[in-house]
Write a structure and sequence with these properties.
alpha+beta; Antioxidant, Horf6, Chain A, domain 2; Glutaredoxin; single chain; two-stranded antiparallel ribbon
Length: 239
């Protein structure tokens, strides 16, 4: 049984490389982004580090996905977007993450939020993994997973951290509002899965801050008291 599973995964990976070579190349030629070139000896020579910051417009691109060609972020006009990277399909931690994403996706949809996954795997490998995940659970992975085989989008968003891996992404998460502005982000190492209840909580907090122009205290939950921006301003600039 172990031999059969190992053989199947090997065939999927090899097939994925073949399809990646013939898949649609991500188009990032029209992007303007604040990127820097690092020459440190600790990382790849002249590795391009692009890390959009809170308040920046989300870098745009066109790329292939499990749902076909995506024009990001414009294809999700009017919605909040959570863009999540994962190191590799079929791996144990990523599998638990995507099962949790499938479990919370209905709540995110009610909150007018679109999930979008991304990794350096091919679209073919994504689809095989997605089908396996869906066959194993009643809650379906029904959001697009972007293929970025050369890591162009990952580098654009600062998802590849060379001291962690020069090829695979870390577990990056970006929250993008309906105006295509980045409102929050965080990165986890490949060894540790994310807390998806916290992702959901942060989305709700960002939404109420945007809608009502308020701040939220530590451990805030929907329905809890918020803080007015006037109070926040007093703390920042006391009389």
């Amino acid at each position: 049984m172990l031999y059969k599973k190992t053989k199947l995964m090997f065939l999927v990976i090899i097939s994925g490389y073949f399809f990646a070579a013939n898949s649609i190349e991500p188009d990032i030629n029209l992007i303007t982004s604040s990127c820097s070139i690092e020459n440190s000896q600790d990382i790849m020579p002249r590795f391009q580090i692009c890390a959009p910051q809170i308040g920046d417009s989300a870098p745009s691109f066109r790329a292939d996905s499990t749902d076909g060609l995506i024009n990001f972020p414009k294809d999700f006009s009017g919605k909040w977007i959570i863009l999540l990277s994962h190191p590799a399909d079929f791996t144990p931690v990523c599998t638990t993450e995507f099962k949790k994403l499938a479990a919370i996706n209905s709540d995110l949809k009610k909150a007018n939020c679109q999930l979008v996954g991304i990794s350096v795997d091919s679209t073919y490998t994504h689809k095989v993994w997605q089908n396996k995940l869906n066959a194993d659970s009643s809650r379906k992975v029904d959001f697009p997973i972007i293929s970025d085989p050369e890591g162009k989008i990952a580098k654009l968003y600062g998802m590849i951290h060379p001291k962690e891996s020069k090829v695979q992404t870390v577990r990056s998460t970006y929250f993008i509002d309906p105006d295509y502005k980045i409102r929050a982000m965080f990165h986890y190492p490949s060894s540790n899965g994310r807390n998806f209840e916290e992702i959901k909580r942060l989305l709700y907090a960002l939404q109420i801050s945007r809608k009502e122009n308020v701040a939220t205290p530590a451990n805030w939950q929907p329905g809890n008291k918020t803080i007015s921006m006037e109070e926040v301003a007093k703390d920042v600039m006391p009389d």
